[in-house]
Design goal:
single chain; 191 residues; alpha+beta; five-stranded antiparallel sheet; four-stranded antiparallel sheet
């Protein structure tokens, strides 16, 4: 009687350990807003998955609370970063030039016409998607995982605030709406 009971206990323990290990290896999928919007400062303050350490009239300083599962790949000659946690594919790099928002949209259209990495559905990220890349600490002087190119220290989003556009500054670890020129780091959804 003792041996079958011991066997059941050992098997139960091993199965429980495997379930815990599996849960640790594959974090829960987090869906971020992917359609553009005209957002007030207070709406941006209330974005999910963000820790805000300092508020300001034009945005905030903070970082994402998402535990990312990044994978760098080269697809058809294009370097991308797949985030298995959010289901997003990012350009590993982005534009080499600092540009105005309307020029940035043209840059993404050209990227799509070239079918970068075999895809033609690249877009500017929403501010929620762009802010999800903010890390709490700096690596290579930026608040972004070093899997990404460090040249794009500030990127555009597709979201507006009246006549301005929301963007993320990885150099300062903030989200803001004020400035006129940024880099481009396109994204696409993995469906």
């Amino acid at each position: 009687m003792k041996k079958p009971l011991l066997y059941i206990l050992v098997v139960s323990f091993l199965l429980a350990a495997r379930i815990v290990q599996s849960a640790e290896e594959s974090p829960q999928r987090i869906t971020l807003r992917s359609s553009y919007s005209n957002l007030s400062v207070s709406e941006v303050y209330s974005m999910p998955n963000i820790y805000i350490r300092k508020f300001d009239e034009w945005g905030f300083y903070g970082h994402s609370t998402i535990i990312h599962n990044y994978e760098k790949k080269s697809i058809k000659g294009g370097d991308v970063v797949i985030d298995h946690t959010t289901g997003l594919m990012w350009l590993q790099s982005g534009s080499k030039e600092y540009m105005q928002w309307n020029v940035a949209n043209g840059w993404v259209r050209k990227l799509n016409s070239l079918k970068f990495a075999g895809y033609n559905d690249w877009r500017l990220p929403t501010i929620e998607e762009a802010a999800s890349l903010l890390e709490p600490g700096k690596t290579n002087a930026l608040h972004i995982d070093p899997i990404f190119d460090k040249e794009q220290w500030g990127i555009w989003s597709g979201d507006k605030r009246g006549g301005s556009t929301w963007s993320v500054y990885f150099s300062l670890g903030n989200v803001r709406w004020r400035y006129k020129n940024r880099y481009v780091r396109p994204v696409r959804s993995l469906n």
